[in-house]
Amino acid sequence: MTEPTLMWTRSSFCADSACVEAAPVGGEHVAVRDSKSPEQPYLRFSRDEWSTFLDGIASGQYRDI
User: Fold this and answer.
1) 1 pLDDT above the threshold of 50
2) 47, 5, 42: which is closest to 20 by C-alpha?
């Protein structure tokens, strides 16, 4: 199976090259990679998993990690 061409975006809060980038995958998933190593494999999450993670960030759930 051929890998899709992904349209990577990074947060507007990213000030340097040490960022996380995300890309939609087929409408059902979100791919996440380290911008310092874009050639490395990416992580893949369902839309629900990604949404739950973003909600946790917004609520401060990960503040002490």
Assistant:
1) no
2) 42
pTM of the model: 0.78
User: Encoding tokens for residue 5?
Assistant: 């061409």
Beta strands, E only, the chain: 9-10, 20-25, 29-34, 43-46
Residue type, 2: T
β partners of residue 9: 22
Question: CA 62, CA 42: separation in Å to the nearest integer?
Answer: 21
Residues facing residue 43 across a β-bridge = 32
> What distance in Å separates the CA atoms of residue 57 and residue 65, rounded to the nearest whole number?
11
